TrEMBL record:
Organism ancestry: Eukaryota, Sar, Stramenopiles, Oomycota, Peronosporomycetes
Name this protein carries in UniProt: EF-hand domain-containing protein
Membrane topology: Multi-pass membrane protein
Subcellular location as annotated: Cell membrane
Span list, region Disordered: 887-908
């Protein structure tokens, strides 16, 4: 009881005591109900002469058989219910103890083999119920010992810890904000060249995040401490403190958005010009924000429910003035002579910074409004109390299927231990109790659970048993007790330190503490003739081994498969979230785009339906802030479990690769959070302004034109003077390094806004489609089908997916005959420059072999299924050394050799070796082939490619032509060679599969370019009303989309590596 009621703080111990006592109470009430209905008869007695204690006893088969189903049902129901684990294990443990006491027919007062006298009031049902109630009350009193350990000698209050953290929180924010503002606003340097700045910023952000996690964990403990009056003694209000912790978390999120902005910045001349004019305003808001945050923290530490300070209103006015000034400055810069369309894209990172800093400041002065709407009435507090009591019992789970498996396995283990306790251990409840204490629902590999439990079992039994053996030899009782208690204290302290120091070793430390206590608290060696009794040790060991065996036999889980399933779940959730948020932002800005008349645009008719409602926005925020972070934290643990899991026949697990995947998943979550926060920021900006945002329009540049020209010339001079230098830094390549500047040809100067809008619609559709398809492909790559595939299998799948996507021009998911030409050209790049290739015949044959339903459309699934069934794409090389490879230049004028006009033979004989372009039946490195250098001397025939069906070769002779033509084939020295790629590094050829890059980055760059062109042409149209808020939102959207594209490309690279 004392071990399992322990916690680092007073509030934690109070919560543990409540849950433990609740579990014992549930079991007690259940047994009262069961045994008031079922009488104990001691019928069908059987003798058990052989047992661990070597003392014969009786078992009532009637009572045991009648009670066992009730024990089984209670155990399964408790393990299946979504309640806290403490409640579960103490309910199951107490229920097993109570039922074994009821059905035990032996008289405990007599050392012999006498039965209970059922006529005696002490052994009747009512008497046993009273005894068990007294036993439960004694157990409740025993849990108070844990409370004394955290109260004496110095109370470990969670409230004090939380107040200490809140006192240091403003300092953390100030350091991070000052560092970012100093670097971005006053130094104007590329962060890729500032390694020490990046390292320091990461260190400060990690420390702040750790403080946030600790404060969130301490909040629940503070609530339990408030119940016992600690909050009154320390002048603390938990509700106000909770609002401050939420404020701290939102500020950290804004600071991460600012970090994202400075990482995307490259010191463009537009940044230099605008920052010179805005430095003073930004510095003033920075100082006011820091002072306001410090005052808020002081008020919260005083438990004040009001924030009467004029700083909130003054800061709000300063922000409004800044936004108005920034809108005018940007409008003037748009009229500068040196400003071009590309400069709009270069200033998007600055807009991201303005948004994040505006959101940071707005979060601060919004705190007063949030606090004023908070309900602090007594009635509300009472309702909140009962809600928290229920939450302390209920613990929902998103892994219901795994919870059922856990309940079945653990119930089976308890049943086995229950039978062993009845027929071997003389109704001792040690075995079922050990299983109830050790079993815990854990989303992870079975091997990790077994390893931790085995480590705890060995650590808690071997050394304590050896020490206990020698301690029992001490004759002096006082010295024996002192030394035994000292060993018990030291071992439990060490075990609990391991338990609390590492989440991965928590189970091992808890089992070690439990087992060492059961060993060292057994004083039977002092009262029996035997030197030492191993009864308790054996029972615990057998029970834990039983649990591990059942878990290993009944649906064992591999940490690797769980990890891949976890990644699948995350990527699928990302796909849904991105689609909803991206569509919302696009449709929300359609009003600012020009009308295009008859030109089709996306979502113009379903704008209201595509926008997120207030309820959907709240659900989206909950998923991004609670659900997905929980899954990613579980992914981190699964990576650790998979690393420790033995490989055996499986390929070696790459911890580095999956750690990078986890890092990319966290980065993608941050970008999706940014897009989600933009939804609220846009609505909040329009709600707070009396007008419909600050209108952005071209203004007279005035003196700003000279500044722009000077900054532009200075930048060009620096570029001309500086040689190309490769910086070896600690920072990974950013999005800007991976995305081309202008993938599309620029629009002509006389292009209308309608043309720009059409290009924008096309680019955003293409980007959304390629992101969806990329996430879908990644979900497939992390499926069970690809678990044991090689890196080449991943690479060929991604290349085929990319080639299919390029061919699918209308994004319909299928390719027809016209689009199939593009796909085959990607697959067969050598046929383009060799004259007439008879592409129509290739297309017809391809459709005949692959299009199973004959609808004229080929899906990617049909194509991959054909490959899986053995479909091959081959390249045939005709080689006649005497005729086709001249020995000198004079022979080039000779008549060329006879060449075949139609598609080549499909016969695959042993002496023929064709160049396999794709053969997924082997799916090895052969799939990505390069031509050896010697192949450069071989002349390609006009018709070089053919397809091989997975079926037999009969029925394909018609493709070969007439008998005369077939007789001519050997005469020209035909030789089909299969070239492999073991020496790929020595090859000077090019890959046959003509897809060498992912189009994600290009699609993102196209998005930026097309919006820049649309914006400038919308500003030239007086009928269009473009607000600065919309421009900032679209800048954040496009910048985040570029980073999402870069990270998805990185995920694809990791999968194919």
């Amino acid at each position: 009881m004392v071990i399992y009621a322990s916690a680092p703080t007073v509030g934690g111990v109070v919560q543990q005591i409540w849950q433990i006592d609740l579990g014992v109470g549930l079991a007690l009430l259940y047994n009262f109900g069961v045994f008031l209905v079922i009488p104990i008869t001691q019928g069908d007695l059987v003798s058990v002469p052989e047992n661990l204690n070597d003392t014969p006893y009786f078992v009532s088969l009637h009572d045991w058989g009648l009670v066992s189903p009730f024990m089984l049902a209670f155990t399964f129901a408790i393990f299946l219910l979504p309640i806290h684990h403490n409640v579960k294990k103490f309910a199951v443990m107490s229920n097993a103890f109570f039922m074994l006491k009821f059905i035990n027919p032996m008289n405990p007062r007599v050392g012999g083999t006498d039965l209970k006298d059922l006529n005696n009031s002490d052994y009747a049902t009512q008497g046993l119920m009273k005894n068990l109630a007294v036993y439960s009350i004694i157990g409740v009193v025993g849990t108070l010992i844990s409370l004394m350990t955290v109260l004496l000698p110095t109370p470990l209050f969670a409230t004090k810890k939380l107040m200490r953290h809140m006192g240091h929180a403003p300092t953390d924010i100030r350091k991070i904000l000052n560092l970012i503002m100093d670097s971005y606003c006053f130094r104007v340097k590329d962060i890729k060249k500032m390694d020490f700045f990046r390292l320091r910023l990461d260190r400060l952000l990690n420390a702040a995040q750790h403080r946030l996690s600790e404060m969130e964990d301490l909040l629940d403990d503070c609530w339990w401490e408030e119940i016992v009056g600690v909050g009154l003694c320390l002048t603390f209000n938990k509700n106000v403190a909770k609002q401050f912790v939420k404020l701290y978390g939102r500020l950290l999120k804004d600071l991460r958005a600012m970090k994202f902005a400075i990482e995307a910045e490259n010191g463009h001349w537009t940044h230099v010009v605008l920052m010179k004019r805005m430095q003073q305003s930004l510095h003033i808001m920075q100082a006011e924000a820091n002072d306001l945050l410090q005052e808020i923290a002081n008020r919260v530490l005083e438990a004040s429910t009001e924030m009467p300070t004029p700083k909130f209103a003054h800061l709000e006015q300063t922000v409004c003035h800044f936004m108005k000034k920034y809108t005018k400055l940007y409008g003037a810069m748009l009229s500068a002579e040196v400003h071009t369309t590309g400069d709009v894209g270069k200033t998007m990172s600055l807009n991201v910074f303005v948004y994040s800093f505006h959101s940071f400041v707005h979060t601060l002065f919004e705190f007063e409004e949030r606090l004023s709407h908070k309900n602090f009435t007594c009635r509300y507090r009472i309702v909140k109390f009962f809600k928290m009591v229920w939450c302390s019992i209920y613990q929902g789970t998103m892994y219901m299927k795994r919870m059922i498996v856990f309940a079945v396995r653990t119930t089976l283990a308890v049943l086995i231990a229950y039978c062993i306790s009845t027929f071997v251990f003389a109704f001792s409840a040690t075995g079922p109790t050990a299983i109830a204490m050790v079993a815990q629902f854990h989303v992870g590999g079975t091997y990790g659970n077994m390893r931790n439990r085995m480590a705890g079992l060995v650590a808690g039994t071997v050394v304590p048993s050896i020490l206990h053996f020698f301690v029992c030899k001490i004759s002096d009782v006082v010295f024996y007790n002192a030394l035994n208690n000292a060993v018990l204290f030291v071992w439990i302290v060490g075990s609990m330190y391991v338990c609390y120091s590492s989440s991965y070793l928590r189970m091992a430390g808890m089992v070690s503490a439990y087992m060492s206590a059961s060993v060292l608290l057994d004083h039977s060696c002092r009262t029996t003739t035997k030197a030492l009794s191993y009864s308790s040790l054996t029972e615990n060991s057998v029970a834990i081994m039983t649990l591990m065996i059942v878990e290993g036999i009944l649906q064992p889980q591999s940490a690797r498969s769980l990890l891949r399933s976890n990644i699948q779940q995350v990527l699928w959730a990302y796909s849904k979230v991105f689609r909803r948020v991206f569509t919302h932002h696009i449709t929300s800005t359609d009003a600012t785009a020009p009308s295009v008349g008859d030109l089709p645009t996306v979502n113009e008719t379903d704008t209201m339906k595509a926008k997120l409602s207030e309820e959907e926005t709240r659900a989206l925020h909950k998923e991004l802030s609670l659900v997905l972070p929980t899954i990613l934290k579980q992914q981190k643990k699964l990576v650790h479990d998979a690393t420790a899991e033995p490989s055996l026949w499986k390929p070696k697990f790459s911890n580095e690769q999956y750690t990078q995947v986890l890092s990319v998943c966290w980065t993608l979550l941050d970008r999706l959070r940014l897009l989600s926060d933009l939804v609220e920021w846009r609505e909040r900006s329009y709600r707070n302004c009396v007008h419909e945002g600050y209108r952005l329009k071209r203004r007279n540049a005035g003196s700003l034109n000279d500044e722009c020209t000077a900054a532009f010339k200075e930048q060009e001079e620096e570029r001309a003077q500086q040689p190309e230098t490769v910086y070896f830094t600690a920072v990974a390549p950013t999005t800007e390094d991976m995305i081309p500047e202008a993938p599309l040809p620029p629009l002509p100067s006389n292009a209308t806004p309608a043309v720009a809008k059409a290009r924008w619609d096309s680019s955003r559709n293409a980007y959304e489609s390629v992101v969806d398809e990329s996430l879908e492909a990644l979900v497939t790559l992390f499926s069970k089908d690809f678990t044991y595939k090689t890196a080449d299998d991943y690479a060929i799948y991604l290349q085929m997916k990319e080639a299919f996507r390029i061919a699918d021009k209308d994004c319909s998911g299928t390719v027809d005959a016209s689009e199939l030409v593009v796909l085959l050209e990607k697959l067969m790049p050598y046929t383009g420059d060799q004259g007439s290739v008879h592409m129509e015949q290739y297309v017809d044959e391809f459709m005949r072999l692959v299009d199973k339903n004959h609808d004229g459309q080929v899906t990617f699934a049909e194509f991959m299924q054909a490959l899986n069934d053995g479909f091959r794409l081959e390249l045939e090389i005709y080689e006649n050394t005497a005729q086709m490879i001249p020995s000198n230049t004079g022979q080039l004028n000779k008549e060329p050799p006879l060449q075949q006009e139609g598609p080549a033979s499909m016969d695959i004989s042993d002496d023929s070796s064709a160049v396999d372009l794709l053969e997924s039946s082997t799916a090895t490195s052969d799939a990505l082939m390069t031509l050896p250098s010697s192949a450069a001397r071989v002349l390609m025939p006009q018709s070089t490619t053919f397809f091989t069906a997975p079926s037999s070769l009969s029925g394909l002779d018609s493709v070969l032509g007439s008998d005369d033509e077939r007789e001519q084939i050997p005469q020209i020295g035909t030789s089909r060679r299969r070239w492999w790629t073991q020496t790929r590094t020595e090859s000077t050829g090019v890959a046959l599969l003509n897809v060498e890059s992912f189009s994600l980055n290009e699609a993102a760059a196209t998005l930026r370019q097309s919006y820049s062109e649309l914006l400038l042409r919308s500003l030239d149209d007086d009928d269009q009303h473009v607000t600065m808020e919309d421009f900032i939102v679209m800048s954040c959207l496009i910048s985040a989309c570029e980073d999402i594209a870069a990270n998805l490309t990185r995920l694809n690279t990791l999968a194919a590596s």
